[in-house]
Fold this protein.
Amino acid sequence: MKHLFIVHSNITYLVSLRVIEALGLAEEEVVFGIHRNYEVPDTRFKNKFALPPNFLVTRNFIKNRQNINKWYSYIDNHVNSDYVAYVPHTFNLGLALLVTNNRCKYFNYIEEGLASYNPKCFKRINITWLRLWINTCIYTSRALVYFLFEHRFFSLTARKLNKCYAVSELAFTESDDRELLEFMPKVKREEGTYKCIVVFDALSIFGKIDSEVLLDLLQTVIIPHIKNTEAQNVAYKLHPEHYITEHGEKECIKIRDIMRDNFEYVVELDRMFNLEAYFSQYNVTVYTYVSSLGYYASLVGCASYRVAKRLVQINSNIKVLDEIENKLLQL
């Protein structure tokens, strides 16, 4: 039986590695399902494939069933075995299909960031029998509807759920079966190439707040604070969505112009640059909006600043957790 890990970021890959180590899995037992064009950096793992894009669901239940079967066949052809799944959530259609596939014997949640800290992501959504029946007809699968409509990101009562794997104490606190793994080995941290790193997230890309608000905070709050510290060797990292969406690409251009205009030496980090590993090895000051990377930086002793509370004042629909914000330095 294979162990299928879904990874789309450095943190999902890091947690996957910790699970592989904890379970003592051999390389040939592991398969990586890749999302967001993520690249698995460890060449030991040969079994990996890109997840197919989600298909559009229509009112044509026959077409929907055909698409679902194609999706199942695609996964089965790449995994070629019964499997245990390790997924960051089951809110997404594709991930829900992974765990409702008959070849998936059971599944586990792995920590990916903010959603796994938020209790509201675990609560049941009330669904009427009429809505359940209608959507079951459309999707042709009650099990699939159960994940997509009756729960939010995480279904802790799902029959196939085994446990939740986390690397931080705030993750999956709603779960009765959580296994806490080591985040990063403790090492003597040194001075690195970059003294200051700004981490951008996808708030505007996901429609949470206007792009101009984020850019204004960058110019009026974050950059002045960096300049006051006289930090040299500044770097910044964009969100994966910046590279794959039209809105994100437009925001990229503005961010690059602003950073170049304000710093003599500034580097845009490659999208595969592992910030979590860098934080654990080097002394660096980190700036974030609401990204969980600010929290991960604080876990290993980095100075971590954020503007999340300013964003909440501008848009109350943006939610932050006091348990995290109280651990970080607020701008």
Summary: The chain has a mean pLDDT of 86. The chain has eleven helices and 13 strands. Residues 286 and 304 are 5 Å apart (CA to CA). The first strand starts at residue 2 and ends at 7.
